[in-house]
Structures are given as C-alpha cells and as structure tokens.
Task: structure prediction
Amino acid sequence: MGEVSESSPVPPLPPADLPVTLGALRAAGHRHRTVKQELRDNLRARMRTGAPRFPGIVGYDDTVLPEVERALLAGHDMVLLGERGQGKTRLIRALATLLDEWTPVIVGSVLNEHPLHPVTPASRTLVAEAGDDLPVGWLHRSMRYGEKLATPDTSVGDLIGDVDPVRLAQGRTLGDPETIHFGLVPRTNRGIFAVNELPDLAERIQVALLNVLEERDIQVRGHQLRLPLDLLLVASANPEDYTNRGRIITPLKDRFGAEIRTHYPTDLELELALIQQEADLVAEVPEHVLEVLARFARAVRESPSVDPRSGVSARFAIAATETVAAAALRRTCLLGADSDEVSGNDPSATAGVSEVPCLSPEAVARVGDAVSVTSTLRGKVEFESGEEGRETELLGHLLRTATAETFRARLAGLDLSGFTALVEEGQAVETGELVSAADLLRQVGTVPGLAKVLDRLGFGDAPSAGQAAAAVEFVLEGLYLSRRLGKDVTDAGRTRYGGRD
Result:
C-alpha cells in the first residue's frame, strides 16, 4: 500500500454561526494555538470532566495510555513500538479526537494556514492585502489527520514534496516556494501525521524527516523552505529485533520525545472485551464460545512453537470469532427449515431443554464450529522453523486446551452424570457442522442437570433451541476432553460422542 491508508472522509458542514472573515474572527476573541497546545488543552479539559479521552481503546488504561497522555502534555512527538495487531494504528487515530472540532483556515491554503498565523509568502501577502475582509474557512478535525504506510518505494516527494515542473515552465524560479508541490507531511500542517511501520522507510527517506521533527522546516532538492510546520508527528514500528526490513536510524529516534511500548491484552477479560467490541458477527456467538476463542488466542500467543518476535495479532481472535459465527449462519442456510432453531410449538425439540421453550429464530454458534479456524487462520501465525508441516495439528491441540480450560472454569462443580448417562449401553450422540439444533436435542431428550448448565452459561431460563444445543455440545466436548466420554469423527465429518472404550 503506497497511499493514505483510508479513503478521505466526507467532512461535515461547519455551523452557520462561525466567523467567515478575519475581522469577525478577531472580534469573536479567537486566538491562535499550535496543534500541541490544542491537544494539551483539550486533554486537560477531558481529564477534569472525566470524559472519555481515547474512545475505543481497550486494555491500555493503566499501561500505555498514561504514557501517551504524558507525551501529549509534554508536547512530544512519539513512536509506538509493538508487535502486530496491538492496536497501534487505532490508538494513533484516536489522538485526532482530541483536536478542536473546527479550526479556522485561510481559504485555498494548501497548508491549512491559520488566518492569524500565515506561514507562506503568498498567504502573508494575501492577509496584508485583504485585511479584515480576508475570507475564512473552517476545517473539521477529521480532515486534520494524515497517515502513510511506509513502504520501501516511498519517496521524499511523497512525504515532503518536490519541484513542480509545470510551475517552472510557467516562468517561476527554483528559489520561489510556489514551485513546490507539497507532500503529505506539509499538507497535514496544523494536524497530526502518522507514519506506520517507520523502519520500512529507506534510511535516506528517514533523513528527510529529521528537519520536520527538530527544526520544523522542510528541504526540497536542496532548496530550503523556512516554513514553520505545526504538527504532531507519530510513528509506529514493530520491535527492531523482529523486523529485518530496516531500522529507525539513530538520529531520527533521538528526535522523538517519547518511545512507548504497546502490548497485547494482559488478561482474559480484556481479550474478551476487545473481541466483543471489534468482531462483526453474522450470528450469535455465546459467551462460553467467545471465551474458548479468547483463551485459544492467548494460548497460541504463549506457545513455544510460535515465533514470539512476530506475535499473534488481536485480529486473530477477532477473525476466529467471525469465522465461527459464519459457520453457524452457514448451517442455518444449508439446513433451511430444519436449521438451528425451531418453533416453540415442537414438543420433540423442546424436550431436551427441560421444558424451556425455544424462542429465537437466529443462528447460534457452537464450540464445534471453532474447529475450522485451525486451518483457515494458520496464515496469521508465524511458527518456529522446526514446526513446518505441523501448524494445523498444533493449533488443534491449543484449541482443545482452551476448550478444556473454559469447560473447567464455567462448569466446575456441576453434576454432569445425566450427560454421561446418555451414552450408556453403547448409545451415541451425534453432532457436527450440519447437525441441526433440533436434531441434537431430539437425540439427548430430557437431560438431568441441563437447566443448571444453561444457567451457568448465561442462557437463563428461556434459551432458544440453538442456545440449548450449543450448551449440550459444549458439555459433551468438555466431558470428552476430561476423559469421561469417547469421541469419533465419521467419514462424513460428523462427531459421535459415546462411552469410553
């Protein structure tokens, strides 16, 4: 990717009561502040009122965010260091919410110059000539954030600017600032500019950022422009011992006022909160299935078979949850009227819910749906070199471990003998990706202890058939993993739970 990471949003229209001339702006008592002063003042105001300071950021309240706040209060540019999928870009984008909602600009200024503080010769001339009649425009904070994903082919022209040959052909001289076509950094003047994966920039390109960070001016092809840029520069990078594509040159690292380390969610609750916030689900995923996937992601992250320098992105657990939800929706679509949920008027289906009616018509994910993620998501994990060819097997083992841990955490102490009794005398219970909830519940019938299981799993006293089936399958899989049931997978891909041999 060689362009700004997201398509430019359509800015809202400014309120009609904002000043539209320089004279009206002065009369309103408006004063010029630098971007860093603006961020500092707005952050302090939110701290005093207790308003959310970084909406959407999960798991950093006691670790990363205090360091970010100290950097903003100190007026420091910063670099965020951390493995992939730790929310670095999300955090950087959240900084823009601390800007003023609207800020005045000189109409037509490429550099978003403040009417009270013009920086280019052309704008200073315009202000001097127009005086209080100078037209004033208003820029929304969403348009004051610029972002560039660093790639090896990024040029100085992309970031800083270059001489425009068309303007030279029109008769301008190389010493004229008007011959410069400005790059992304100066065009984000009076805003926040982010460089993602900074070490991927060639070292000669990183050198071009030195003046921006220290002297706040820019140089283009040896022509020095004394333009006092007003911006907050933020960069992200993977730890340098992992990325072999490049490094942050020492002089540039020295220019950043703060180097902040990010991390993955520190506990299970934060991992769950992140999944619930970010996952876009097409079907219901019960809490116990979410917990299995959260534990699975953490187990993969901590596995000695996985390269710790690469990390396991938070997107791994999010994608796994979305995949499981999609598997539930697929089952519903393929089975049609005989799908996960059935009408509460069907007594044969409700018998397995211990006289609890089936109400919801929605697809519900089960723990068995998680098996597919071991193959579809293995590309998100970088294994140690000695584990080649065993990736799916290793992920499958970690998924079973996560399921067993969730089973113990959720259902410890319950009498589950009613479930083991289902397979006595050579009987079996069959489930699988294309076994409907109604079919599964017909097989188990009335199970002593199911109501308590449903309560422990948060389904209450009125679960749908899909929720009840999800609970039954979770118990059967947990009993198998605790070696109280046997399990076979048929050639058709169905799972049969029976007695242990």
